[in-house]
Protein: ESPL1 protein
Organism: Sylvia borin
Amino acid sequence: CQALAWIGHFPPGSLYGQLCQLLALTIGDRDPVATAGLLQESLSVTTRHQLLAIVHARARWVTRVAPAGG
């Protein structure tokens, strides 16, 4: 829990996802709602990073294709 709290404000995607999965494994059946939330969070961070990568790639493509002087 402390590791997740330390990096929670600006998490690197892979580390954050792995910490959420590990924390979900430790909670297990004791709190099924928290476990489901942590697993969902571990998947959503991957989706967010993929979406940001796509948006960044398209923005680079648009600036490369746009005519100079505009």
In short: The helical segments are 2-7, 13-27, 32-65. The CA atoms of residues 25 and 35 lie 7 Å apart.
